[in-house]
UniProtKB/TrEMBL annotation:
Subcellular location, record wording: Periplasm
Keyword Signal part of the UniProt annotation: yes
Protein's UniProt name: NMT1/THI5 like protein
Upper lineage: Bacteria, Bacillati, Bacillota, Clostridia, Eubacteriales
Domain SsuA/THI5-like: 51-268
Gene Ontology CC terms: periplasmic space
Keyword tRNA processing in annotation: no
Family: Belongs to the bacterial solute-binding protein SsuA/TauA family.
Native source organism of the sequence: Clostridium coskatii
């Protein structure tokens, strides 16, 4: 993450944050045994997962818990999970199927808290939903039913394979009687999908916030569906995880991280109906990732992981072939509930993990 443009705003940010989050006065940060902030490492974030880390950093939530985030540079999606296992990074975030596939290969890691979820029905702004499936309004596909009418295979963009795009698209296509034989996956980052859709190099783009604004600015987007109708709240499930080794050696740091990051996510949720606060969070994200942002994700107020939701993702991976039919991966292989207390106690404004 690149945090270059806002250093002159720290005082204003802290004062605003104190008012907005209900935190009154200053707090003494928890520190390590040597009195210094404890460093936790993660890759530099230039995608839609950036916002909570940015907010927790900008508003001092990590510092309050005695933590300092160290950004280790850009890490390609396929290398992120390995970077956690080899110790180059300490924490990551991923969908349940990514963790299940890693566990199938022998990876020892655990998710410690929920992050992204689909917003409740009461939140009507579709910009806050996890994904949009979009066609070019000037192209041949105007509805999902047009996929079966298209001559040959329909090229569909995806930012990575065996991801949320696969999981939700499998459900979507099955509901609409669309054979996967009609689909040709084209792997490219979300922002490149916008350009490819405009040039009609792909027929459908599947993008996440904050790239919705890029689609809207292009003036060619035709929304086929959004993610919440496909699988409810679980359609957006995203998890923070650490290696088993790190959790065993540094349980206090994990607890502090959970408190800080969930506080940041609640701040983002609370900012949604407040135009000034929402614009501020959007701008921080835009500064970090280098593209205009109209919205970020919606986050679980309750960070406790729902085992039944995770099992759905594992079962979906078996059905799609991402996991073998005889896979023995269980929810307990990729989830720990040891930090549930911190996922929820962190909602208290002045809570410091000890």
């Amino acid at each position: 993450m690149k945090n270059k443009k806002l250093t002159l705003l720290v005082t204003a940010v802290v004062l605003t944050a104190s008012f907005f989050s209900g935190c009154g006065g200053s707090k003494q940060a928890s520190t390590g045994k040597n009195g210094k902030l404890q460093v936790i490492k993660t890759w530099s974030r230039t995608d839609c997962t950036a916002a909570p880390v940015i907010v927790a950093d900008k508003l001092g939530y990590f510092k309050d818990q005695g933590l300092k985030v160290e950004y280790t540079g850009d890490t390609q999606p396929a290398q992120r999970l390995p970077s956690i296992l080899n110790g180059n990074n300490d924490f990551g975030d991923a969908h349940p199927n990514n963790l299940a596939i890693a566990a199938q290969g022998g990876a020892k890691l655990k998710a410690v808290a929920r992050s992204i979820v689909e917003p409740p029905e009461s939140v009507t702004d579709t910009h806050l939903q996890h994904m949009w499936w979009i066609s070019n309004k000037n192209g041949p596909i105007k509805t999902l039913a047009d996929i079966n009418k298209y001559p040959g295979k329909v090229k569909v963009g995806t930012n990575s394979r065996n991801s949320c795009v696969d999981y939700l698209s499998d459900i979507l296509f099955a509901k609409n009687n669309i054979s996967l034989d009609k689909i040709e996956w084209v792997q490219m980052p979300d922002i490149e999908q916008v350009l490819a859709l405009k040039k009609q190099l792909i027929q459908i783009a599947v993008v996440h916030p904050p790239y919705y604004k890029s689609i809207e600015d292009s003036k060619i987007g035709n929304i086929l569906t959004t993610s919440r109708p496909i699988d409810g709240e679980n359609g957006g499930t995203y998890l923070y995880y650490f290696s088993d080794k790190f959790i065993k050696q540094h349980p206090d740091e994990v607890a502090k991280f959970v408190v800080a990051i969930k506080k940041a996510e609640r701040y983002i949720n609370k900012s949604i109906p407040d135009p000034k606060e929402r614009a501020k969070v959007n701008q921080w994200t835009a500064d970090a990732i280098g593209v205009p942002v109209s919205a970020n994700h919606y986050y679980a107020d309750n960070g406790t992981i729902k085992d039944s939701d995770i099992k759905e993702w594992i079962d979906g991976s078996i059905k799609s072939g991402a996991l073998p039919k005889n896979s023995k991966v269980k929810v307990s292989d990729i989830v720990t509930h040891d930090f549930d207390k911190y996922a929820n106690l962190g909602s208290q404004p002045n809570y410091i993990a000890k």
